[in-house]
Design brief:
Blueprint (H helix, E strand, L loop, with lengths): L5 E5 L6 H15 L5 E5 L5 H7 L5 E5 L16 H7 L3 E4 L2 H6 L4 H13 L3 E6 L3 H6 L2 H12 L5 H4 L3 E4 L13 H18 L2 H6 L1 E5 L7 H5 L6 E4 L7 H6 L3
Parallel strand pairs: 1-2, 1-8, 2-3, 3-4, 4-5, 5-6, 6-7, 7-8
The structure holds 2-phosphoglycolic acid.
Length: 249
């Protein structure tokens, strides 16, 4: 079974609600595709206007984070049922910026992944190594540890439906893309790790994205790799260029 490609934008902390609506009006005709799953992951305050602005299209809206509790005294956090009620379908979990600047741990991410599935949200789980780790030769060991910790106790039937984004930290926002060979090698290692923890069928179904300076010029070659099922796109998802990435063929 061929996996459908999935291209997701990660707007990070950009775009006020009014700007979000303007940008979606620009992107809508460029990225509304049937061939590829298209997701825009937007800041929490942009979610409601973004859902309204994408109504009637094939563009899904995603969140950039979510808490693992249902509700309660967690000032500043967003609960899964809030996302679901707003119409959110995907949620980025464990982006390296959240791991680094907000000290998110694998233990918390494991709870978040489980909670997302409980609510019918599809996680886009991020993993990736630092430049130091790559130079030390521990990239694959590190990624396997992240995957195993973050997916502990998550059933195969859920993993088959999720998205994993491989994002080498040194390639994020730096204009320094991993080579196609490097990206394919790690995405394959992630798939092999899933096959090892679960089974071949789950590994064949899980979609694995590459992220880190994806642009209109490199998307085609990256997405043509056997284990790369699309991309998680930061900077370029804020520009009409995102249309070229979605229509990479
Ligand atoms: P970038 O960001 O495309 O701007 O490198 C990717 C990401 O952080 O998801």
């Amino acid at each position: 079974m061929a996996r459908k490609k999935i291209v997701a934008g990660n707007w990070k902390m950009n775009m006020t609600p009014a700007k979000a609506v303007e940008l979606i009006a620009t992107l809508r005709p460029l990225v509304d595709s049937n061939d590829v799953d298209v997701v825009l992951c937007v800041p929490a305050i942009d979610i409601v206007p973004a859902i309204t602005a994408t109504r009637g299209t094939n563009i899904a809206i995603g969140a950039e984070n979510m808490h693992y509790e249902e509700s309660g005294a967690y000032t500043g956090e967003i609960a899964p049922n809030m996302l679901v009620e707003a119409g959110v379908k995907y949620v980025i979990l464990g982006h390296s910026e959240r791991r680094e600047y907000f000290h998110e741990t694998d233990e918390e991410l494991n709870k978040k992944v489980k909670k997302a599935f409980e609510h019918g949200l599809t996680p886009i789980l991020c993993c990736g190594e630092t430049l130091e780790q790559r130079e030390m030769g521990i990239t694959i060991d590190w990624i396997r540890m992240q995957i195993k910790s973050d997916l502990a106790g998550v059933p195969a039937s859920d993993v088959a439906k999720m998205v994993i984004a491989y994002e080498p930290i040194w390639a994020i926002g730096t204009g320094k893309t991993a080579t196609t060979g490097q990206a394919q090698q790690v995405c394959k290692a992630i798939r092999d790790c899933i096959a090892e923890i679960y089974d071949e069928e789950t590994a064949e179904n899980v979609r694995i994205q590459y992220g880190g300076s994806v642009n209109a010029g490199n998307a085609k070659e990256l997405f043509a790799q056997p284990d790369i099922d699309g991309g998680l796109v930061g900077g370029a998802s804020l520009k009409p260029e995102f249309g070229k990435i979605v229509n990479y063929k």
